[in-house]
Amino acid sequence: MDSKLKTAYKGWPLLLLWLLITTLLPISANAAGSLVSNTTWTAANRLDTTASMQQAGFEIYGLYENSTYKLLLKSVAPSAGVAPTPISTNTTIWLNSDGQATTGYKIWGFAGGEEFSFNVASDGTLDWYRYPNNTQTLIGKFPVTSYISSGNATTGYTLEIHLTDALLQANSTGMAAPSTSGVKLFFDVNDSIFLPIYYSNGEYLLARTTSVTRTSKRIGIVYSASSANRFWALKSYSQLFMAAQMQAAQAGIPFDLLTEDDLKNITKIAQYDALVFPYFANVKAADVEVISQNLLVASTQYKTGLIVSGNFMTNDENGNALAGNSYSRMASILGVTRSGGTTAPMSVVLKAASTTHPMLQNGYTATEEILNYPTAYTDYFASAGTTGYTITPVVNQIMGGVSTASAVLAATNASGARHVHFSTIQFMGDSNLLWAAMQWSVYGGKAPIALQLGREQSLFAARNDMDMSMYPDEYSTVENPLYTLINKWKNDYGFVGSYYLNIGSGEDNWTTATNYNNYVTLYKKYLALGSEIGTHSYTHPVDTNVLTPAQIQYEFADSRTRLQQITQWGLTDVGGAVPGAPDNLPAANEMLKHVSYLSGGYSGRGAGFANAMGYLTPADTKVYLSPNMTFDFTNIEFLKKTPAETEVIWNNEFNALANHANQAVIHWPWHDYGPTIGTAANYGGTRADGSSINYTVAMFTNLIKKAFDAKTEFVTGADLSKRIATFRTAILNFTQPSATSVSVTLTSSDAGRYALKTNSPIASVTNWYAYNTEKVFPAKTGGTYTINLGATPASVMHVTKLPMRADLLSTSSTGSNNLKFSFVGQGRAEVTLRCSTTLNKIAVTGATKVSLNTTTKVLTLNFPTLKTNTASLTTQCP
Questions:
Q1: Is the preceding peptide bond at 78 cis, omega within 30 degrees of 0?
Q2: Contact 72/159 with Cβ under 8 angstroms?
Q3: Distance, C-alpha 86 to centroid of its chain
Q4: How far apart are CA 174 and CA 179, in angstroms?
């Protein structure tokens, strides 16, 4: 390639610099002795991993260590009986040190953006050039024999160069500064063979790695503004983004929320065990190079797993396909590429493909149906043939009842990073597969320790829109009868909920009615049950999306203030529930300014994504909750369903949310008038078409009982939003010094309602006395817990069950026959004793003894008052 490199030698300054460089052995340790043997290179060091970057007869290796870039061009036999090509004169290595295509020298006027090149000259030297202001300038000449092996037809030939950070920096004057994430490379062998074959396929990346210490297991969830702006609605993208957050909570792995700009910082993203991209098809054209480079570095050098859906970095921010092979980044980073898609809607059924894969080892059966779409479009993906990647189909999709393709792929690269690709965003957002994908990506299987939002199997947050509350005359027909019901549900099932009041206007304003004190007294009784009072707006507008910021302030900030004034309960953090039509993203953000959290429009399969709870964007500081079960009004009055049909719908929705969940979170919306209007059980109204409108108390009671029987924990919206917020900021560290011991440190300001779930049976916890066979109940302040594993429980008196919503403060014991524990809450707790005894031999203070099961040795205690409770127990065990 002399014709491209030829330039005049420019004087003494460069000659002096060359003498200095050669004296310091700048390029390679090889200059002082023999070449580094290519046998030290491994498959994990290959840079030419994708088919589009490979050239028969050549292999390219790269490694960054000790602040030095090391690269190897190796010529091998292209096929049996064909000799390797010797590496000789006019072989060139092009080096893009800043990683950008917008700076540096353009090869042939279009390829790359090169700051340096190394050329094998005809005089037997290896010449190093730089390109300030696009002008070729010689840095120095070095004996080529120090870098090119003599080789033969059997061993092949190599060209190896070592280049320190210091030398790159010293010779970058007048050019863009070297990238902190790595360098990019083109190769030209003997001015006749090009690697890659087409330079338009892109450059090879040699990553610059630094030491990264991960102090805890953590996931980064990426919000792509470029993709959100191309999504069918900004709010829908936020729902998908929040669904990923709740799946991280199910996985038990705390998370951070990242932006596209964060992806340009390799030091930041390398801190994460896995990165989740709910949808990242679109990326700013100006950033695609640095982001793709950083993600490749993160996955190959730091073993960061990537979990993605659909197309990945294939289009720019305007929707245009990226130049060249738009799927090349998927192939090089994930090892997969798009293999096809349907051109017309058809049935799509997802079934388990490999129940032996760790992602499906949580109860899935062979060919189990996971999702069923009667009519849908779909895409499918397959292995890109990327060198070093192992691709495993985990879930298949059957299209039109005939053809089968992969729906979920698990990929492992040569460095051990574990990636997961969902063929569509629906496959990621509509099922409980994502949390298992997160655990596999981070741990390679089930999590040894998972932080959970609660101690039970699921959480159930009931949202009651108190539409009738603004009317003073509905006190006796709706709101007071409702209290009777929820009081019974509290006694029977431990049920609590959130009740969002309207203030009203004019005559329809309960706060100015003559009987307003009756309401104040009544709603105080609601609170005494452990439930919550929030705002449903001032006047219940039918569409918050058309309101101005000032109108939204009136509806939510002023209603909140009025509630605080009229009740005098000392309400501080007041949550809100959106009235009327589902809210869009601008309206939601505006309403969130005036409440402590917001429960918004329904989000579920076909109308968003289930489990959409968390933060709408990375910039948000308040939690947004999307109901993931349908409203009573929607079923009874809009869809004209009967109570029996509504029960079936609710049962199916509950089951779908709980199916294969690690800990489902259910957010159920209903209305004050549903079970209460009229003196009879039915609301005996009629629709415009003359058909009857019927709600029954039983349809509500049966759902609450179903949740209770499924071992749910009933929580308020305020409680749930606080748990989500605290989970996000928690830090979970653990070590497992042996197969029978795990040491866990939980750093959190409010962990007393959480649980630490293990993957093995718990025998005991050293100096801590609140746990069952699979979960440790941590203190409010977190702490360090040494968990002793084993199938046989140790003979230790300990708390095995706490009341719903109890905030655990402490446990202690000064001997094997006594126990003391404190918590904030009310209800029943269970303590497992060391021996089988009788009630009269157990001394208890601070609680009432309810029963003792002499077979299981479980003592049930009752704490009737909502307060800080402290119980002390003494038994008479040998």
A1: no
A2: yes
A3: 49
A4: 15
Q: Which residue has the higher pLDDT, 63 or 726?
A: 726
Name the phi and psi angles at 191, rounded to 5. Answer: 60, 25
Output the 3-class SS for 351-385.
Answer: EECCCCCHHHCCCCCCCCEEEEEEEECCEEEEECC
CA distance 234 to 585: 6
d(CA 478, CA 144): 92
Q: Where are the beta strands (DSSP E) in 559-672?
A: 576-577, 598-599, 613-614, 624-625, 664-671
> Is there a contact between 840 and 854 (Cβ–Cβ < 8 Å)?
no
Q: Give me the pLDDT at residue 5, please.
A: 31
DSSP 478: I
Q: Which residue type is seen at 42?
A: T
DSSP codes, 227-292:
HHTTSS-HHHHHHHHHHHHHHHHHHT--EEEEETGGGG-HHHHTT-SEEEES-EEEE-TTTHHHHH
| Average pLDDT, integer, range 571-587 | 95
Contacts of 568 (CB under 8 A, 6+ apart): 520
**Structure tokens belonging to residue 839:** 């009630």
Q: Which residues pair with 427 in a beta bridge?
A: none
Question: pLDDT tens-digit profile of 608-640?
Answer: 999 999 999 999 999 999 999 999 999 998 999
* CA dist., res. 281 & res. 302, Å (int): 23
Q: State how far the Cα of 51 lies from the Cα of 53, in Å rounded to an integer.
A: 5
Bridge-partner residues for 768, per DSSP? none
What pLDDT is stored for residue 49 in this prediction? Answer: 83
The pLDDT-based confidence of 582 (bands split at 50, 70, 90) is: very high
| Residues facing residue 215 across a β-bridge | none
- Do residues 146 and 28 make contact, with C-beta atoms less than 8 angstroms apart? yes
Give pTM, 2 decimals.
Answer: 0.86
Tens-digit pLDDT profile for residues 198-227 = 898 888 988 887 777 777 899 999 999 999
Secondary element (H or E) of residue 224: none
